[in-house]
Design goal:
Largest sheet: 13 strands, mixed
Radius of gyration: 22 Å
Number of domains: 3
């Protein structure tokens, strides 16, 4: 969850004025306060997903003004050949005071406009992972064991975004690759293999920076509740076992002549609904990468993958007063009415409207209990 003031948290639970800001910026900037041309926002939304290749997508409609019109050249603010849009949502406290929360940098993919030429322009855009996915290799890419994880990931990213910052949450970036890594075409697949091999996740954050970090904690960081002082406006829930996984088997290649390495992570908590040895039964899935060169690396990768996929049995869809501080992966305490009580869930998907009267909607799954694991 993003950091906001106590005043912000109090204000959004009641009637308040919404502040929305969008800037058209030249590609390559980063940070919380880029330089750009301010857009007049009519409506829009930012859609986010915890376990998607592209974490955040933008749909926005803006007015034509003296500074912003249908793009006729690559230098025009809304030209899809390289321009980006940076979006914020927050609270207007009045008296010139606002508190804005950045929602990300978005590469313009499509512009659409009805004629005549003074009609609004509708824009769809993706976060910067779209550029990594598009930039497939022209020839096979390889890294040998002299490369570190940090250097290899920066090399992949800087081909596409030369000035981009890659930010790790610890010193894992200095770890050397345990084997030769080769990828024929898919830059994004290579990036994700490198990240997963060291038990991390990665995504582009609101500053346009690529974060490489441990998966988020299972501890609640906020609350959604109904009733007085609550922000929930709608809620429904669904039970299903479709797509649920409770075992991940990760395999790799040994760095010497020993047999291939292996690690397993299981939902081994008897209190869990998807306990692998309980009535639910074992439902394994498999992951393999040459980057995994020890049993312990396999176990760490398996736990990371399982942590993303546990808890899919119980889905909760909600609508609430928008809180742009929420992010996919956040764990929240969800308080229903007095009869249904409270539960703890992780946000899977989130849609934050940019209009004053638009609710925040999303889907959550019951928090995954800590997964165990062991080499085998």
């Amino acid at each position: 969850m993003r950091s906001v003031t106590d005043e912000f948290v109090r204000t959004i639970t009641g009637s308040h004025r919404v502040a929305v800001k969008a800037l058209a910026v030249a590609a390559g900037q980063e940070g919380a306060e880029p330089v750009g041309i301010e857009l007049e926002v009519i409506s829009g939304k930012v859609s986010m997903a915890y376990d998607a290749d592209i974490r955040a997508m933008l749909d926005i409609t803006v007015r034509v003004t003296s500074d912003v019109a249908w793009p006729l050249a690559s230098t025009d603010p809304l030209d899809p050949s390289g321009s980006e849009i940076v979006v914020y949502r927050g609270v207007d406290y009045g008296g010139g005071r606002t508190e804005l929360v950045g929602l990300g940098y978005f590469r313009i993919d499509d512009d659409e406009q009805d004629i005549p030429v003074d009609m609004p322009i509708r824009i769809t855009a993706t976060d910067r992972m779209g550029g990594i996915i598009d930039a497939r290799f022209e020839e096979p890419r390889y890294y040998n064991t002299t490369w570190t994880y940090g250097d290899a990931i920066e090399d992949l990213v800087h081909d596409v975004y030369p000035a981009a910052t890659v930010e790790w949450d610890d010193a894992t970036s200095s770890t050397h690759l345990g084997s030769l890594v080769i990828q024929d075409e898919d830059r994004h697949a290579m990036l994700m293999d490198l990240v997963t091999a060291v038990g991390k996740i990665c995504y582009w954050d609101y500053r346009g920076i690529l974060l490489v970090r441990d998966p988020p904690s299972d501890e609640p960081v906020g609350e959604l509740k109904s009733g007085r002082d609550g922000t929930l406006v709608s809620l429904n829930r669904k039970l299903s076992r479709v797509g649920a996984v409770n075992i991940i088997v990760a395999t790799g290649e040994s760095a010497d002549e020993r047999p291939a390495v292996r690690g397993v992570a299981r939902d081994d908590n008897p209190a869990s609904r998807t306990y692998y040895a309980g009535p639910f039964g074992p439902v394994p899935d498999f992951y393999s990468s040459p980057l995994l060169t020890t049993d312990s690396m396999c176990i760490k990768a398996a736990r990371t993958i399982l942590g993303k996929r546990l808890g899919l049995l119980y889905n909760v869809n909600f609508g609430s007063v928008p809180n742009p501080a929420n992010e996919p992966g956040d764990v929240l305490t969800v308080t229903y009415d007095r009869d249904a009580g409270s539960e703890i869930h992780r946000i899977d998907t989130l849609e934050i409207g940019l209009g004053a009267n638009e609710a925040m909607t999303g889907a959550m799954r019951q928090r995954a209990l800590t997964a165990g694991g062991g080499g085998a």
